[in-house]
Amino acid sequence: MLGLQILLDGFAISSLYGLGAIGFTLIFGVSGVLNLSHGGLMLIAAVAAWYVAGDLHAGQYLGALAGLLAGTASALVTYLVVVRPIQRSRVIPRDETEIFVLTGTLLWGIMIQEAVAYLFSDNPLTVPALIGGVASIGGVRLPYNEMLVAAVSWLSIGLLWLLVNRTRMGKTLLACAINPRGLTLLGFELSRIYFAVWVIYGLLVSAAGVLLASFLGTSSGNIGNLTASAFSIVVLGGLGSVSGSLIAAYVVGYLETVTAYLISPEIRTIPALLLLVLVLYLRPQGLLGRR
Q1: Looking at the DSSP assignment, which residues form a beta bridge with residue 95?
Q2: How many Cβ atoms are within 10 Å of 160's Cβ, its own excluded?
Q3: What ranges do the domains of the chain cover?
Q4: Three-state DSSP class for 48?
Q5: What is the largest CA-CA distance in the chain?
Q6: pLDDT of the residue at 205
Q7: pTM to 2 decimals?
Q8: Which pLDDT score, from 0 to 100, does residue 277 have?
Q9: H helix or E strand, kind and range, residue 100
Q10: Residue pair 240/248 in contact by the 8 Å Cβ criterion
Q11: In 3-state terms, what secondary structure has residue 143?
Q12: DSSP assignment, residue 263?
């Protein structure tokens, strides 16, 4: 019975990790940005959902919608206020732009953390479950909300796959990831492409933030852990590899779940971090290599 519990819980948390990491991978693959404020954007979405659903008594569904809007808007602010000015700066040397973007997004994430702690609280926040009730599977009690988290995560991933592989916009995003200079020669405006991909990224990271808050809860103190978790999964799977990120998300999710149940929840992240160090030492390009 314990094995089935680990299997079910691990699937839900791994699906959620996959949703969060795939957005991180998308934004890096297309625009080359490693966004270290990733956890902060998830937190903004979670806090907005919590505030609207709880303090404003608008219900969990309007709260979830508010979280999506707030997180997406925050992602666009991150791009327009932090990332794009650095990328377009004539003062910063071109070969140092990535370092400045990393530093800028890191500081932005810290500012979000401090702002949320000051305006709301640094205590854990939990969004009301999107759906109530508990199912019994093989003698294991499984909340319907946990199943919904996994289903919505994979639905979002599936919609992203359809967008990338079955639409004109998706083909443009793929081309931008492969050869952005070639796109400009064909008359495409990179700023519009980058804006679109940040919108998509904002929706993904917001959905992950809202689902996380309704499933496990979150707080301003978790921003660093959320960013580190997404970054670890992306590096483990291979920078820019969507399929690699999904595989790595399940490896990390199940490692953490097994550790939490069989050893202690306090050290659940340690085995995954040790695996990351081992992979970086033996296969620095990640499980599926860089794409």
Answers
A1: none
A2: 19
A3: 19-220
A4: helix
A5: 63
A6: 95
A7: 0.92
A8: 85
A9: helix 97-119
A10: no
A11: strand
A12: T
